[in-house]
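Quick one, probably user error.
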């Protein structure tokens, strides 16, 4: 029995990883989508999260509640993807679309302003350090509390608050520069 447990820790059984994927893939996809704004990029981030997990199964040590870890991983993968897209200058197919499912819920002017703001925010996120972008996304896109973020990232709540304050100031400055 000890041998089977050791094997599971070293290499995930297809069943364990598949079950984790089945239970959490929608949350991972949604978290990545909130950061990237692109279904295609979110799906890429989803694949990245689970491939990284499969390759580092023995290092990760998932607890009984892997959801927060996977959401954090999704945010990281999505930020990495945004950074690589900015470097390469690639445009995803979703970025060309102007017809979201809920477009009719708001006025066309409001929808275009919001879409433009989201595009600028994604661009501005790239100037933040990885840690600051991660904390910002977890707080404002994933709606995690400072306490949850502090626990997830092994930081104090004070440190999380400082990172958020600095990130908001930096993004505010960056967004003003993008407008001008």
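Nope, works fine. Designed sequence:
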């Amino acid at each position: 029995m000890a041998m089977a447990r050791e094997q599971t820790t070293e290499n995930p059984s297809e069943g364990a990883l598949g079950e984790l994927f089945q239970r959490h893939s929608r949350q991972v996809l949604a978290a990545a989508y909130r950061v990237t704004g692109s279904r295609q990029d979110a799906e890429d981030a989803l694949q990245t999260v689970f491939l990284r997990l499969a390759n580092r199964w023995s290092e990760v040590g998932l607890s009984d509640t892997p959801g927060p870890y996977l959401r954090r991983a999704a945010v990281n993968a999505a930020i990495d993807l945004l950074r690589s897209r900015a470097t390469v200058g690639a445009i995803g197919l979703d970025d060309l679309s102007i017809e979201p499912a809920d477009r009719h819920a708001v006025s066309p002017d409001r929808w275009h302003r919001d879409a433009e703001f989201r595009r600028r925010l994604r661009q501005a996120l790239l100037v933040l350090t990885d840690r600051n972008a991660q904390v910002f996304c977890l707080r404002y896109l994933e709606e995690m509390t400072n306490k949850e973020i502090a626990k997830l990232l092994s930081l104090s709540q004070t440190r999380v608050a400082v990172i958020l304050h600095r990130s908001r100031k930096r993004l505010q400055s960056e967004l003003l520069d993008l407008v001008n």
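Residues 131 and 163 are 8 Å apart (CA to CA).
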